[in-house]
Amino acid sequence: MSLLELKEVTKSFGGLLALSQVSAAIQMGEIVGLIGPNGAGKTTLFNVISGFYKPSAGKIYFKDKDITPLKPFDVTARGLTRTYQESNLFHDFSVEKNIIIGCHIHPRMGFFEQLLRLSSIQKKESRIQEKVEEILDLLEINSLRDELAKNLSHGHQRTLGVAIALATEPDLLLLDEPFSGMNAEETRAMMAHILRIHKEKKLTILLVEHDMKAVAGLCSRVIVLNFGQKIAEGSPEEVLKNKAVIDAYLGVDKDVV
Amino acid sequence: MNKTLSKTLLLIAFLVLILIFPNLGSMHWNRVLIEIFIWSVVSLGFRLILTAGQLSLAQVSFMGLGAYTVAILTTQAHLNYWICFPLAGIFTGFFAMIIGYISLRTRGIHFALATFAISEVIRLIWIEWKTLFGGVGGIPNIPSPNPLLGLKFGSIPSFYYFAFVVLFFTALVMYRLSQSRFGMILLTLEKSENLSQSVGVNTFRYKLIAFIAGSFFAGLGGAVHSTFFHYVGPEDFSIHQTFYVLIYVITGGANSIFGTLLGVSSLILGLKLIHHLPNFNPVWEPLFLGGVLLAVMKFKPEGVISLLQSVTRKNGLERKQ
Asked: How far B181 CA sits from the closest chain A CA (Å)?
């Protein structure tokens, strides 16, 4: 059973075809890379999967259920969480509070439950605190817990983005360019984090990335998009030798002749 | 001294002062304080909606809904005030739910304009539907609250305590919410709505709940207002009163409950002092508030409370060193 299945997903903005009949499947426990030149439709595909865009045609199945019509918060509640390309955080809150907000669905708290501080709330709050500690330790940002998100370094901001996503207890994590703008050291640290959460949380991961070294180091399988179409799929080594992929990145070599 | 301890002591001293005030101040100042309590309740509701990133220009119209609910139910249906009082809040909240369900699909200036339009519609209905709402003349002769548990509310000191209890209850609810995860999430809706959705927050629902709760307190404030003045009329709840509330909240500091209370009390006191000036002209009211607003925007855009906040922060730093 595949965890996520895309069936001929198409998305057009007016006359522009951003995604054209993309089909793909992601199995439980995989780390899959999604690559392609700028404008290939990678982020659009992320937005479609996570419910921010509705596809013009096609279906998306998650855990064998059709999630195509769901709103983003419902998609998250089913166990599919995304991160963002830019540092999209709760900037005016501390690192700790960012993660507390991330715990919104696990556990849920009702309005009156919080207003009246019913007896159930203490148990939930201590559960949240446990989760926060665990995530802070897992991603090695415990020393920054009281720092405001907006004051963090770029690398730590991206780590916090992953931490917030982890707090939603996803089964499938979509990472949108987790290494962008990072130096070599930060990239290495982030790769280690991703591998660790993959192993310890038994997370399936789909990531968009430009850094081919990182993709080759992390992913067991790679999907290549170009102009909204899937042009190749396979292990990183295979894909990088693929003629269509080389053409997509470097241009067709007819000019050379 | 411990910071929380000194804060608690200050709060207790303040509460004691409020509680013994009816025995110290004159009748006139008692009435002024009651007005401050009423507008504080309405302003705290307004602030709750504001923290969710929405500017509701119908807040005072909703206060009017509560006031008219009490007026009609007590003068025409002759219901006991203590039944009407919660009903006023609940009815206003229910009305806000319907309005919010439609208008909260918009945001920012669009939502503000939608609520502005609704407030005008409500005012015109009060004016035109004369049999029910009494037209421009409003509804007079609203009785004082019925005696409750042996307490009578006809006199000013006892009414003063009633209004204060309503404010205390409101502030307590607001404080609880601000300390909860619910309150935290409200604060994320303006700047990071997408991310909030990504962590599973039904952002529309949060905005709707904030709008309902804020309007509920507008209704409660109105319910106190109508029985205090024994009268409701459309001009008491016109849009310019909403702008007054907006100025109170911004002047005090919208990011804090205490700031809001500070803004309401200081500006209403200011307005009352202006009334005592020789040759008082009602035009001075908006002139005064407009001047205050300009000064706050220029020098302390975060509100007067930010002065206090920066002072306590500085003290904290010194202590650390």
From this structure: 7
